[in-house]
Specification:
With 597 residues, this protein is an alpha+beta fold. It is built from 20 helices and 19 strands. β7 and β8 form a beta hairpin. This is UvrABC system protein C.
Length: 597
């Protein structure tokens, strides 16, 4: 697939947080960066004059921009770090060292210690994070220390060693920072309850801890210990502002490939995320043209084989949105919740963005190609003899049988052509009769087009089922246009499309662009018709009330409403104010009508 020009790539970037990667003409990675707004940040490289010679040289070498969309700025920061460590891009100076972000470790031991670390050791310990700064880690650990008394020594507190009195309590015990499990002064159950509470805090669930802090703050305030109360309040503020851990990295997700798919009528878009030691080290999306009517599952199975071969992936497990056949040697997981599910959702979001960008790029580079594709698709889906470049849709509006009106909206090349919209007052039908009204407006519309030698549409859509469709067909027959213009009806549920003399409706794929355009047509016709109907009904209600006053005609009513803007203001006006608009004689009649009981 040929890469679009850089200008096109820039125009179609999303306004979302994420990580961008620059590649040269040989596909070698030049730079990795993070952004709160991808479009703004990346565009700035190509529009600003750079003070740094290094950046200027890099910009000249850029031939391709790739990006990964994430949920937050924190995620972008962590993902940027992972990709720089993995690929060591030439123009990245920062973060190329081997220093990683800090974690909080709950050690796998009896009476576990809780401490910060930059190293992940596979000994069964629990690691939470990573955190974007040690300040956050230390603040969190200070909070934990203030809430729960934990040991800091590295003794092996085996049951028999404690029982034999091998250890003695240290200064931490005498300072009140530890409850002395080394001498059996604290039970393992009690200590583990504290550890479970700490787990909840580092996961971002602070409900119980916050409540305890608030109670402590209240107690200090009641004792007039305001400095202590303020210290606790500061801790509450930090806790409330602290965000839960990132979805980008989870050390338990190790060496896994993630695949998701988004499809439309002609193409499938498959995103691939490669995870190593819990970190995303690669994101790639491919576009697959449908040769036959392949299902999402069939396309995804093909893509998995192709992508894994292309990137020499040796992962033994894949995460996918639904079950696929990937061979006996590969474990297939369909995550239902937690971080695994979030990583699949992140992949799906990137596939969706890629599809949107391809559409935008297509419209910029070759706008006609997109329209031609949609028109050809509509012709095929709706079984038409020619492409529906000009479509007209009719809708009746006669709420509670009053003021029957109809609307005709026009789409040309799949887009609304508002200058061609038309409104109709129903003239020949008494009372609410949708079928007769439809026949009247279709007849009037095409009789006029024929008389004025105007262009006729390739497709007529009537809003309604078989009855309205039959009425439209009857009108065309009267005009001698039956068989010359295709006509279909849409049932209220929108998915059902009726053809003349065919009792079985057609059901379109809910994801198809054909159905989307038909829905847009029907909604636009409904909106246009309802607006016209409301305006007419309001006007009639006003006119009727004023015209009901003996001696007041239509011309006077128009003058009054033009000046006072509403019926309410006419009622509230003084006789002198009314006289200035319609003369003293009529002003007296109107004033007496509203002010004598």
């Amino acid at each position: 697939m040929e890469k679009p020009a850089l200008e096109v790539q820039l125009k179609t970037l999303p306004n979302s947080p994420g990580v961008y990667q620059y590649f040269d003409k040989n596909g070698k990675i030049l730079y990795v960066g993070k952004a709160k707004n991808l479009k703004k940040r990346v565009t700035s490289y190509f529009t600003k004059k750079h003070d740094s010679h290094r950046i200027g040289v890099m910009v000249k070498k850029i031939r391709e921009i790739r990006h990964i969309v994430v949920a937050s700025e924190t995620d972008a920061l962590l993902l940027e770090n992972n990709l720089i460590k993995k690929h060591q891009p030439r123009f990245n100076v920062m973060l190329k060292d081997d220093k990683t972000y800090p974690w909080i470790c709950i050690k796998n031991e009896r009476f576990p210690r809780v401490f910060p670390t930059r190293k992940l050791i596979k000994d069964g310990s629990e690691y939470y994070g990573p955190f974007t700064s040690f300040k956050t880690v230390n603040t969190l650990l200070d909070l934990i220390k203030g809430l729960y008394k934990l040991r800091t020594c590295n003794y092996d507190l085996a049951e028999d060693k404690i029982r034999n009195g091998k250890y003695k309590v240290c200064l931490e015990y005498h300072l009140g920072n530890c409850e002395g499990p080394c001498e059996g002064l604290q039970t393992e159950e009690d200590y583990n309850r504290n550890i479970e509470a700490i787990r909840q805090i580092v996961k971002g669930n602070f409900k119980d801890s916050l409540q305890r802090f608030k109670n402590q703050m209240k107690e200090h305030a009641e004792k007039m210990e305001f400095e202590d109360a303020q210290r606790i309040k500061n801790k509450i503020d930090v806790l409330e502002n602290y965000q839960s851990k990132s979805t980008v990295v989870n050390p338990k997700i190790n060496n896994v490939d993630v695949f998701t798919i988004v499809t439309d009528e002609g193409y499938g878009y498959v995103n691939f995320l490669q995870l190593s030691h819990g970190a995303i080290i690669r994101s790639h999306t491919i576009e697959m043209k449908k040769k036959l009517d392949e299902s999402d599952r069939e396309l995804l199975e093909l893509a998995i084989i192709e992508i894994r071969q292309r990137f020499n992936s040796n992962s033994k497990e894949i995460y996918v949105p639904f079950k696929v056949d990937a061979g006996e040697d590969l474990k297939v997981t369909v995550p239902k919740l937690g971080d695994k599910k979030k990583i699949v959702e992140l992949s799906h979001r990137n596939a969706k963005y890629y599809r949107q960008e391809r559409f935008k790029q297509m419209k910029i580079v070759d706008p006609d190609r997109h329209v031609n594709r949609v028109m050809a698709q509509m012709k095929e889906d709706l079984r038409l003899s020619e492409e529906p470049r000009h479509i007209e849709c009719f809708d009746n509006s006669n709420i509670q049988g009053s003021n029957p009106v109809a609307a005709c909206v026009v789409f040309k090349n799949g887009k609304p052509s508002k200058k061609d919209y038309r409104k109709f007052n129903i003239k020949t039908v008494e009372g609410p009769n949708d079928f007769a009204s439809m026949e009247e407006v279709v007849f009037r519309r095409y009789r006029r087009l024929l008389n004025e030698d105007e262009e006729l549409p390739q497709l007529i859509i009537v809003d309604g089922g078989k009855g309205q469709l039959s009425s439209g067909v009857k009108a065309l027959e009267t005009l001698g246009l039956r068989g010359k213009i295709a006509i279909i009806g849409i049932a209220k549920r929108l998915e059902e499309i009726f053809y003349p003399e065919d009792p079985i409706p057609l059901y379109l794929d809910k994801k198809s662009e054909t159905l989307k355009i038909i829905q847009q047509l029907r909604n636009e016709a409904h909106r246009f018709g309802i607006t016209f109907h409301r305006n007419k009904r309001s006007k009639t209600a006003l006119n009727t009330e004023l015209e009901a006053i003996p001696g007041i005609g239509e011309k006077t009513v128009v003058e009054l409403l033009k000046h006072f803007r509403s019926l309410k203001r006419v009622k509230e006006a003084s006789q002198n104010e009314l006289a200035e608009v319609v003369g003293s004689s009529k002003a007296g009649i109107i004033y007496q009508h509203y002010h004598t009981g």
